[in-house]
Specification:
Elements (H helix, E strand, L loop, with lengths): L19 E5 L2 E5 L7 H7 L18 E4 L2 E4 L12 E3 L1 H4 L3 H13 L8 H14 L5 H8 L10 H8 L20 H6 L14 E7 L5 E5 L2 H5 L4 E5 L26 E2 L5 E7 L1 H6 L7 E5 L6 H4 L15 E9 L2 H7 L2 E9 L11 E7 L2 E6 L4 H12 L6 E5 L15 H11 L3 E4 L2 H7 L6 E9 L5 E13 L5 H11 L9 E9 L13 H19 L3 H8 L19 H24 L4 E13 L9 E7 L5 E4 L9 H13 L6 E4 L17 H23 L7 E3 L4 E5 L2 E5 L9 E7 L18 E13 L5 E11 L6 H20 L25 E6 L21 H13 L10 H13 L2
Parallel strand pairs: 1-5, 6-17, 15-16, 19-20, 23-24, 30-31
Antiparallel strand pairs: 1-2, 3-4, 3-5, 6-10, 7-9, 7-11, 8-10, 12-20, 13-18, 14-15, 14-17, 18-19, 21-29, 22-23, 22-28, 25-26, 26-27, 29-30
Helix pairs in contact: 3-4, 3-6, 4-5, 12-13, 16-22, 19-20, 21-22
The structure holds FE2/S2 (inorganic) cluster (2 copies).
Length: 915
């Protein structure tokens, strides 16, 4: 199948440039590119939307196509150079049997999660398989090394290309690894992301941003600029009819759509230009009439808390945005009586989400309402935030999420949406925008940099005795999810351990840095590094096995958490350690054997644990799911939980179908759309399987009860679909005669809100109904002369309560491990220096070792069928396990990430110099 008809013009025929032609997917097409236009842009203008753009700089590989049969990054090819060439995208390969097998393998292996990297991966893999039908793993890694994936951890991709393919289960009820129900579009390249959906006549929008971390903004003659040819509108704060302010937590909303008077971070928006796409594409932002006068900036909490530092926000003296506290027992007294105390200061930098899909979408005005189609994790929050900005009621705004090419927390915040909505209202035209990679990295939220001081005591028998933690977090220029991080960290800083005497404080401090926000773990990965490295200190000092030390102190049913919450069931960290235990013994013996010969490369093994409360902290957190049965018996699930690649569409539908008692294939899905799906809450905090899954279960129970009531059938009756709705109750089969006055003859909508309780002044209470638990073991090699670290294997045990879909569970764990490895070893966002995927490194396919997942099922009474959340848990233990393995291998005790070779070497030298 070809994505374009023959002879389509990429540019309007009235352009004066001579047309060129190329052969796209077997059809000759004419095109007339702008001077210097990239082939990636030309191909997309020609309709080849399976060619994705993640960086436009040759760094991500999402745009990979074949040019005369060779894989190339289309963004690195000038369109004119493609004159007369044969260009083949994924769409042009789909008819080939080898590609069909490969796409099927990707689908069955869950090798396409969000799917944004998938076309580039498949094209690269197809090129490899054409020249080498049976490649080795090393050859696969070599061939796919230029294509980045932020979701999968690559292992499922490697298996798919090698031909190691999972079986598709015959059954699709919960507990089976049925392939994701939205997976085919991803492997066929037909999934539509934020930059794929705008109408052809849409105007384009470019944001004008501050080049300085702090600057006075002085506009010139905007009216004269706006009168320029092809410019439809110039937007500034004066064009915001409602509040020029937004934020994910209403009480802390502090971020302007457009900065007024002063920009508070590099990359902050001050204006936007809307116009013809060609004009906007050619726009030189330096010609925009604005002068930025740099002002002294505070780029660290220490600078921001100096007496003479500028206060970023009125009412937040000393730039302190908020604090968190959990206190139980008497930490100081316990530390004083401890046999041994470990202490350390631990630091981590900004970490960039680096999803392969930059923020993108379009907006238009439809019947007087604003509709925004964009990549997001939180449609209802987007709607309500936009309503405030536009000065309208929420029902005057409609949010239709596109497919989301990765989010990991950052797409919980508004990005392109306010600009697009304002522009559509001002111009009356559809308006589109896709951030460049650099502006995505400059302007959107990051993981909070942390500076943690921690002391942990232990008795001589290895029992934790006193824990004191103080963390300062750089929350950047605006609040975003900073308050959530400040609240979560003290609750989680203990790790999943039994600690009677505990004090943990957190502080979120404003700086002139990008806003820090939500990123897989909300501050917990940073605190886990401090706690787990100090646990190794204690175990080593006491001469204890490091895993045994953790097992001795692990939480169990009936033991209170540091918040005083007692779970009588469902605490699975002990089972995770138990699952790791035989691997631990094997790995330690393997490291000993590997190190016998000596040499520069030393093998080490590390272990660490993590826990994470699923859902909001001590706050309402409801999800609502709706379902209906049409008069023809068709079953429709209105599923508003955004699937950002983790698999919510499949998992929630599996829970619904199993509870209703019908095959998954019988359920039609209506995806998120604020007009037609009820609020399932945001996709964050590992809440969708647990919270929306429960709402789906309740909805299915209600619908099933109604169906059985109409059929006068007993609770064990079987519902048949496909040819109307037939209920089989023993010997009796009854076809239901349904009529509908609206879309549905039968309908149900149910909500679920996890039972939590507020925390008191000491952080005591019941912040979460459910926690998930994990333990990771890492085996790695350290080159003692170079300081380089090579991961050998990760073994990851996760208590998920009930694995609704084990294949998707594996996928989440693999992806989390990869992100944890990046955090541990290479990722550091520095404003002004690492604002692209060339200077900011994320793991490639060559960086991720084999990952063995050990699924532990310690059911929780609150979860649907016992299920717990998983998304954040998968990352939390990885980085500390890596640091602990580096130390085991080399003696290097690292207290800062990333553990780059220079840091590792310095720590090795320090260890050797120590008495
Ligand atoms: S878009 Fe071409 S390599 Fe990233
Ligand atoms: S599946 Fe690869 S980036 Fe999302």
């Amino acid at each position: 199948m070809n994505v374009v008809p023959a002879k389509i013009a990429a540019r309007p025929p009235d352009r004066e440039e001579p047309a060129s032609s190329l052969v796209l997917n077997g059809e000759r097409v004419d095109y007339a590119p702008r001077e210097g236009e990239r082939l990636s842009d030309t191909l997309r203008a020609l309709g080849a939307l399976d060619v994705k753009v993640g960086c436009n700089a040759g760094d991500c590989g999402a745009c990979t196509v074949l040019v005369d049969g060779e894989p190339v990054c289309a963004c690195l090819v000038a369109s004119m150079q493609a004159e007369g060439r044969a260009v083949t995208s994924l769409a042009g390969l789909r008819a080939e049997p080898a590609m069909q097998r490969l796409a099927d393998a990707f689908h069955r292996n869950n090798a396409a999660q969000c799917g944004i990297c998938t076309p580039g991966m498949l094209v690269s893999a197809a090129a490899l398989l054409r020249r080498n039908a049976q490649p080795s793993e090393a050859e696969v890694k070599d061939a796919l090394g230029g294509v980045l994936c932020r979701c999968t951890g690559y292992r499922a991709i490697i298996d798919a290309v090698l031909g190691t393919v999972r079986d598709v289960p015959a059954d699709d009820t919960i507990g089976t690894g049925v392939p994701r129900i939205d997976g085919r579009a991803k492997v066929h390249g037909t999934e539509r992301f934020g930059d794929d959906v705008a109408p052809a006549d849409a105007l384009a929008l470019r944001v004008i941003r501050s080049p300085h971390p702090r600057a006075r903004i002085v506009f010139g003659d905007l009216a004269a600029f706006a009168a320029g040819t092809g410019i439809a509108a110039v937007l500034t704060a004066d064009d915001v009819p409602g509040a020029n302010r937004f934020g994910v937590i209403p009480a802390f909303a502090d971020q302007p759509v457009f900065a007024v008077g002063e920009a508070r971070y590099r990359g902050e928006a001050v204006a936007a230009v809307v116009g013809d796409p060609d004009v906007i594409a050619a726009l030189d932002a330096s010609t925009f009439p604005v002068r930025f006068e740099p002002l002294p900036a505070a780029t660290s909490p220490a600078e921001a808390e100096a007496a003479d530092a500028a206060v970023l926000h009125a009412g937040r003296a000393g730039n302190l945005m908020c604090e968190g506290l959990v206190r139980k027992g008497d930490a100081e007294a316990a530390l004083a009586r401890a046999a041994i105390v470990a202490e350390g200061r631990f630091r981590s930098p900004f970490v960039e989400h680096a999803y392969i899909e930059p923020e993108a979408g379009y907006a238009e005005v439809v019947a007087g309402r604003v509709e925004v189609h964009a990549s997001t994790q939180a449609p209802v929050m987007d709607r309500d935030g936009l309503a405030g900005i536009l000065g309208v009621e929420p029902d005057a705004v409609r949010i239709v999420p596109t497919a989301c090419g990765g989010g990991f927390g950052s797409k919980l915040d508004l990005s392109v949406q306010p600009f697009l909505a304002l522009a559509a209202l001002k111009t009356g035209r559809p308006v589109r925008c896709a951030y460049s990679r650099t502006e995505s990295m400059q302007s959107t939220t990051k993981r909070h940099p942390s500076d943690i001081h921690c002391r942990i005591g232990a008795t001589a028998d290895g029992t934790i005795c006193g824990f004191d933690f103080a963390g300062t977090f750089d929350t950047g220029a605006y609040a975003s999810w900073g308050p959530t991080v400040a609240n979560r960290v003290p609750v989680h800083a203990s790790g999943p351990y039994r600690i009677a005497d505990y004090r943990a404080t957190s502080r979120a401090v404003h700086t002139h840095n990008p806003p820090s926000g939500a990123f897989r773990g909300f501050g917990v990965p940073q605190s886990a590094i401090a706690q787990e490295v100090l646990f190794d200190d204690l175990a080593l000092a006491l001469g204890m096995d490091r895993l045994a030390f953790r097992q001795r102190n692990a939480l169990a049913n009936g033991t209170p958490t540091v918040c005083g919450q007692v779970f009588t069931q469902g605490v699975g960290i002990g089972a995770c350690f138990e699952a790791i235990s035989p691997h631990w013994a094997r790995a330690l013996a393997g490291a000993d054997a590997a190190n016998v010969a000596g040499g520069a490369v030393r093998r080490g093994v590390g272990v660490a644990a993590g826990w994470y409360g699923c859902g909001n902290t001590s706050m309402p957190n409801p999800s609502t799911i709706r379902a209906g049965v049409r008069a023809d018996g068709g079953i429709v699930l209105h599923q508003g939980a955004v699937d950002i690649g983790q698999g919510a569409n499949t998992v929630i539908a599996q829970i619904f179908a199993t509870t209703l008692g019908v095959p998954l294939s019988a359920v039609e899905i209506v995806g998120p759309d604020t007009d037609v799906t009820p609020d399932a809450g945001k996709t964050s905090a590992s809440r969708q399987t647990f919270v929306s899954g429960n709402a789906a279960r309740l909805t299915a129970e209600a619908l099933r009860a109604e169906i059985l009531r109409l059929a006068n059938a007993g609770p064990d009756a079987v519902i048949h679909t496909g040819d109307g709705l037939v209920v089989e109750d023993g010997e009796r089969r009854q076809r239901l005669e349904l009529t509908a006055s609206g879309p549905y003859a039968l309908e149900a909508a149910e909500s679920y809100d996890p039972p939590t309780a507020p925390l008191d002044a000491n952080g005591q209470g019941a912040p979460y109904a459910v926690y998930g638990y994990a333990a990771h073991m890492v085996e790695l090699d350290v080159d003692m002369e170079l300081g380089t670290v090579t991961l050998v294997k990760v073994t990851a045990a996760h208590d998920v309560g009930r694995a609704i879909n084990p294949v998707l569970v594996d996928g989440q764990i693999h992806g989390g491990v990869a992100q944890g490895a990046g955090m541990a070893l290479m990722e550091e966002y520095i404003p002004g220096r690492t604002e692209n995927l060339h200077d900011y490194l994320i793991p490639t396919i060559g960086d991720i070792p084999p990952i063995e997942t050990l699924i532990v099922e310690e059911p929780d009474a609150h979860g649907p069928y016992g299920a717990k959340g998983l998304g954040e848990h998968a990352l939390i233990p990885t980085a500390p396990a890596i640091l602990n393995a580096i130390r085991h291998a080399s003696g290097a005790r690292l207290t800062a990430v990333p553990a780059t070779p220079d840091r590792v070497l310095a720590a090795i030298r320090a260890a050797k110099a120590a008495p």
